[in-house]
Design a protein that fits this description.
alpha/beta, 11 helices, about 10% strand, binds ligand PTJ
């Protein structure tokens, strides 16, 4: 794999850096081929929100963290894209939320599961990883897509399934799970089906959620319950769409021709 040679002064340095990480992950057998396409779609939506954490995403993150801190069997799921982009943060987040970690793949192969486990163990050799030998299946999902761990997603009351396929999100909701997703596309089926949708880049969302978990751990249960009860995912998705509309209107009216920053 060629080294990453882009100079830090490049205006799109970070975008190119994360693309390079995906290329590396592809070579290591971590990433599904469709993971590249999914990333491109995410990048496009990130442009639309302004490549910053928007207020409705901050609100969704707070509700998600509160729900996780209240959960009995919380599980954080990790797939190929997530392992490529935020492996260390995934481990830190699961620990901060007191959640178990499950490798759960849409395009599951045993080789990819092994490659992802190896990648995660670089950051914590002793980390417990579920999903290596899953014995249960999500009802009404055919073949490899539905395989889950008895001790993990199967048993979970609250699950975080970032960058997820809508069909599986819907199936998890149908199983009675409380589903949290991270998805830059507010129009995706996952975004529309989940109980809490964090419309943000996972690269920004996970570090912020780790911070929130550390802060919110100190709150009494009653306060956490009130945060969850007052949360309305429909309103949050609408607010993200309105943010995009207003931002695009402002850009269109102000002009973007040869503007260096948007
Ligand atoms: O590793 P696997 O086998 O589990 O497969 C993972 C992918 C992502 C390929 C699989 O789950 C898939 O096909 O997902 P979709 O249906 O393409 O949905 C992924 C969603 O994540 C899309 O709506 C993207 O906009 C969004 N997305 C992509 N990159 C990011 C993102 N959301 C947040 N942060 C990102 N960096």
């Amino acid at each position: 794999m060629a080294r990453f040679m882009v100079p830090k002064s490049h205006p799109r340095y970070w975008s190119l850096y994360y693309r390079h990480r995906l290329e590396e992950a592809m070579e290591k057998g971590i990433l599904a081929r469709a993971g590249m396409i999914a990333h491109g779609r995410g990048e496009a939506f990130d442009y639309l929100i302004g490549e910053k954490t928007v207020k409705p995403a901050e609100e969704a993150m707070k509700a998600a963290v509160a729900k996780f801190l209240l959960a009995e069997h919380p599980v954080v799921s990790v797939n190929g894209n997530v392992a490529a982009l935020v492996p260390e943060e995934t481990i830190k987040l699961a620990k901060a939320l007191n959640a178990r970690l499950e490798i759960n793949l849409f395009y599951r192969t045993e080789e990819r599961v092994r490659a992802i486990a190896e990648e995660l163990r670089k950051y914590d050799q002793d980390i417990e990883l579920l999903g290596i030998n899953p014995t249960r299946r999500i009802p009404n999902l055919e073949s490899e897509r539905g395989k889950v761990d008895e001790e993990g997603i199967w048993k979970a009351d609250v699950v975080l399934v970032p960058l997820e396929d809508g069909d599986r999100t819907e199936a998890l909701v149908a199983m009675g799970k409380f589903v949290v997703t991270v998805d830059l596309n507010p129009l995706s089926r996952s975004a529309r089906m989940a109980d809490i949708t964090i419309v943000d880049n996972i690269i920004r969302a996970y570090p912020r959620m780790i911070q929130l978990a550390e802060e919110m751990k100190k709150l009494p249960r009653g306060d956490l319950e009130r945060i969850v009860e007052s949360y309305d995912n429909g309103k949050i998705l609408s607010s993200v769409l309105i943010h995009m509309r207003d931002r695009l209107t402002k850009l269109a009216e102000g002009g973007i021709w040869r503007k260096k920053e948007l």
